[in-house]
Amino acid sequence: MSVQNVLQTIKENNVEFVDFRFVDLSGKAHHITLPAGEVDEDTFVNGVAFDGSSIPGFRGIEESDMVMMPDTEATYIDPFTSHVTMIVMCNIFTPEGERYERDPRSIAQKAEEYLQTTGIGTAAFFAPESEFFVFDDVRYESGQNTSFYSVDSEEAAWNTGRKEEGGNLGFKIRQKGGYVPVAPADTQQDLRSEICRLLEESGIRVERHHHEVATAGQAEINFRFDSLTKTADNLMKYKYIVHNTARQYGKVATFMPKPLFGDNGSGMHVHQSIFDGDTPLFYEKGGYANLSETALYYIGGILRHAPALIALTNPSSNSFKRLVPGYEAPVNLVFSKGNRSAAVRIPVAAVTPKGCRIEFRTPDSTANPYLAFAAMLLAGLDGIKNKIDPRALGYGPLDKNIYDLSDEEKKEIRSVPASLEEALDALEADCDFLLQGDVFTKEFIDNYLAFKRAEAKSVAIRVHPHEYSLYFDC
Question: Residues in domain GS beta-grasp (predicted)?
Answer without folding.
Answer: 13-97
